Amino acid sequence: MLEQQRIHVLVADDEPHIGRIIKMKLEQGPFNVTLAYDGREALEKMESEPDIALVVLDVMMPYMTGLDVLARLRADDRWRAVPCIVLTAAGQEQHHKQAMALGANEFLTKPFSPKKLYARAAELTGVPTEGMGVSER
Predict the structure, then answer these.
(1) Domain harbouring 106, CATH code
(2) Of the candidates 44, 69, 53, which has an alpha carbon nearest to the alpha carbon of residue 9?
(3) Residues in Cβ contact with 7 at an 8 Å cutoff, skipping those fewer than 6 apart
(4) What per-residue confidence (pLDDT) applies to 1?
(5) Taking every pair of C-alpha atoms in the chain, what is the biggest distance, in angstroms?
(6) Domain count, the chain
(7) pLDDT tens digits, 70-108
(8) For residue 22, is it within any domain?
C-alpha cells in the first residue's frame, strides 16, 4: 500500500512555542512542517526545499518581516503561486491591508484558532476536511 503523500508546509515564526503548536496541529493531518525562526531563514528554506506547498508567516520577525518575505515570494516566479497565510499579534488594519495587497491568501490574528488555521491550510492545499471535525471558518 502506498503511503499518503504529505504536503510540505513552511512555518516562519520567531516564537518557538507558536511554531511547535502549528507544527503539532498540521501534522495531525497530511502535512509535513518545516520551521524557520526569522525571515532570512524562511527564504533560505524556500531555496533549499523546493517542494514547499504552503507558507505560514508571522509578521513581526527578526531580519525580515513576514510581509518582506511575502513580497519576495510574490516577486519570484518559482513561488508566486504558493499559498501564504499571514499570522500576527499586531492586528493593525495596515498590516492586514498590506498583506492582502502583497498577495496573502489569509490573514489571522494571534491568538488564533489552530482548527481554523488547519482548515485554511487544508482548503488552500486541496485537502478534504469532511469528517475531521474541522470547520471552514
Answers:
(1) 3.40.50.2300
(2) 53
(3) 30, 31, 32, 53, 54, 125, 127
(4) 34
(5) 49
(6) 1
(7) 999 999 999 999 999 999 886 678 888 999 999 999 999
(8) yes
